[in-house]
Amino acid sequence: MDIEVVVILASCIGAYLIGGIPTAFLLAKRKGVSIFSAGSGSSGATNMARAFGIRDGMLVALIDIAKGALPVMIARFVIGLTVPGYLLTGLSAVFGHTHSPYLKQFKGGKGVATGAGTIAVIYPPAIPFALAVFALVLAVSRYASAASLISLFIVIPYYILLSIVLGHVVDPYIVAFLSALFLLIVISHRKNLYRIIHGTELKFTSSKQRPKGGPDADNRN
After folding, report:
1. Taking the CA of residue 52 as centre, how many other CA atoms within 13 Å lie in the half-sphere pointing to its CB?
2. CA 6 to chain centroid
3. How far is Cα 82 from Cα 72, in angstroms, rounded to an integer?
4. Over the stretch 144-165, which tens digit does the pLDDT of each residue have?
5. How far apart are CA 56 and CA 117, in angstroms?
């Protein structure tokens, strides 16, 4: 087997294991409760904010962002992988977050913050734009899921159009990465989309919605 393929596989496995660290689950467990018994039942920053408040939600978000950014930085700048290699590494980190190897039935979060971490390294100009779109959609709809999906989707045409305007080459690998990332996030939000369609999706508020039950409560994701 080609040595580069072996290195890419090792990088992807490492990224998967790092991305899979269930930040919200572990922090909630330290408080003696299960993150899975509140809100959407997701082990992510948004649900952490619902259950324990904005401060804890922001802490989880920052760590989850780092889970996406760090593996890509190592793959790109330390190992020196080519574009396909570090893009696959980024996707592996996000997949680890959405399907954690450390949780029962490979449950996890929605992958938004971890995905944002990968984009921050791969295409930094997209982050301020995506954040602005996220804030606008969230303010109007109060649906964090809708804001996440729309802000991630809009990054794809933003990258293409900005590259054309600036006279840069549109990298098909990056377009493929952004598209695959968006698809992965859509899949992780499939239940949220169902609830939005049926009018039962939880709206995001700053009030805490304390989970009921202990740390071994079932994952309702």
Report:
1. 23
2. 26
3. 11
4. 999 999 999 999 999 999 999 9
5. 18
CA within 13 Å, CB half, 53: 2
Q: Write the DSSP assignment of 5-55 as a string of letters.
A: HHHHHHHHHHHHHHHT--HHHHHHHHTTS-GGGSTT--SSHHHHHHHH-HH
Q: What is the distance between the alpha carbons of residues 174 and 156, in angstroms, rounded to a whole number?
A: 9
Per domain, the residue ranges of the chain are: 3-197
What six digits make up the tokens of 157? Answer: 């045409």
Phi, psi of 57 (to 5 degrees): -65, -40
Question: Residue written as tokens 């549109």?
Answer: 170
CA nearest neighbour of 85 among 184, 3, 189: 3
- Residue 203 backbone phi and psi in degrees, to 5: -90, 145
pLDDT single digits (tens) 55-92: 999 999 999 999 999 999 999 999 999 999 999 999 99
Cα end-to-end distance, the chain, whole Å? 39
Residue-wise burial string across 165-202, b where 16 or more C-beta atoms lie within 10 A, e elsewhere: eeeeeebeebeebbebbbebbeebbebbeebbeeeebb
Assigned token pair, 16: 């998967």
Q: How far apart are CA 137 and CA 12, in angstroms?
A: 33
Q: How many CB atoms lie within 10 A of CB 79?
A: 16
